[in-house]
Amino acid sequence: MKKNAIVLTGKTLDELKEFVESQEESKFRAQQLFEWLYKFKVSSFDEMTNLSNEFRGILNRVASINSITLVNSQTSKIDGTSKFLFKLFDGNKIESVLILPRETAVDAEKRLTICISTQVGCPLDCKFCATASMGFTRNLTAGEIIEQIIFVEKFAGKKITNVVFMGMGEPMLNYKEVMKACDLLTDNKGMSITPKKITISTAGYVDGIKKMADEKRKMKLALSLHSLDDKTRIKIMPITKKYSVEELIKSLKYYSEKTGFSVMLEYILFSGLNDTEKDIALLTKLHKRIPMRINIIPFHNIEFTKPKGIGHDLKSASREEIKSFSAKLQSNGVLVFTRNSSGADIDAACGQLAISSK
User: Fold this and answer.
1) Over its length of 358 residues, how does the chain's per-residue pLDDT go in tens digits?
2) Which of 75, 81, 116, 345, by CA, is between 20 and 30 Å from 257?
3) Phi, psi for residue 93 in degrees, rounded to 5
4) Overall CATH class of domain 69-344
5) Topology of domain 6-64, CATH
6) What one-character-per-residue DSSP string does 5-74 give?
7) Burial status of residue 31 (CB atoms within 10 A of its CB: 0-12, 13-18, 19 or more)
8) How far are the Cα atoms of 54, 195, 211, 293, 319 from residue 261, in angstroms, in the given order?
């Protein structure tokens, strides 16, 4: 990236209009730039063949398409999941994950999912998440969020169909840039990703959930829940000190009533912590209050971050325990899915993204 260059990826059409006018070009050039950036996803200004040589020369001098660079990638030998390490313009680093569909999936030939990051590190200190070991540095820009998708799509040689905001960081703490990125992702004149194919996961920021509801955002909402008992949830998710479980439930009810959408509850099943009959009863009761489905997730090892306290003691429920827990919920009428682990052998599975001093 050129020094002091204006990064164009992440700019809206209106922002691109301001940019081209600042270069004494006609406004219609903004629409051309928008399509080259987001529809055709070009890597250089020289590929923008309907722009004049003079304007392309200006762009090459004052602007840049990208601000992040790929450092390296790893691919799982078990399931084909790929993890990408990106370097940002300021030297910070983030990771993204490309997840292949199960071979038995009805849309296996078309579906391609990317898990993207929204912050450098994370301030929430969830005890089961490796990203917590990084602390928090800063929010990502909409451009840095979108560039992850464009880079990975080019790597895959196939269109990304599903985007999950489940990588590093808490999306609701970067609400403005995350929603700006979503607007760009779903624009029919650009990347044209269906809103319902985008999932935003939160650890439970009530204000953000309500804001999504008020704005009637069409992306899916996922809640990283893991317990409906305040005392238990506080141990593993300190955010519960700010927003109690009951406050959280009320925000989900508000969201569902405002949007008409159900909520995906992500539930890592820990052996001896949140896998009791009481937990099943609480989840069943919640099922009667709000439209929801539960995604049961195995706990993935984060020993490489050298966790302390309860983080060190957490243990995943066994396959048999997960199967039994899910079956009991299903018998109570709760819609339950069990998520497969993807990329665990390269530390790319749920909760494993972290960067030390790479």
Assistant:
1) 777 899 999 999 999 999 999 999 999 999 999 999 999 999 999 999 999 999 999 999 999 999 999 999 999 999 999 999 999 999 999 999 999 987 766 676 789 999 999 999 999 999 999 999 999 999 999 999 999 999 999 999 999 999 999 999 999 999 999 999 999 999 999 999 999 999 999 999 999 999 999 999 999 999 999 999 999 999 999 999 999 999 999 999 999 999 999 999 999 999 999 999 999 999 999 999 999 999 999 999 899 999 999 999 999 999 999 999 999 999 999 999 998 889 999 999 999 999 975 4
2) 116
3) -130, 150
4) alpha beta
5) DNA polymerase; domain 1 (1.10.150)
6) PEE-TT--HHHHHHHHHHTT--THHHHHHHHHHHTS--SSGGG-TTS-HHHHHHHHHHEES-S-EEEEEE
7) middle
8) 49, 13, 14, 11, 30
Q: Tell me the CA distances in angstroms from 190 to 9, 114, 295, one per residue in order.
A: 12, 18, 31
Report how many helices (DSSP H) and strands (DSSP E) the chain contains, helices first.
11, 14
- Tokens, residue 346: 């390269």
**Residues known to be catalytic:** 95, 350
Decide if 32 contacts 50 (C-beta within 8 A): yes
**pTM > 0.85:** yes
- The domains of the chain are located at 6-64, 69-344
Helices (H), the chain: 13-22, 28-38, 53-62, 142-156, 175-186, 206-214, 230-236, 245-259, 277-287, 310-313, 319-331
Residue type, 190: G
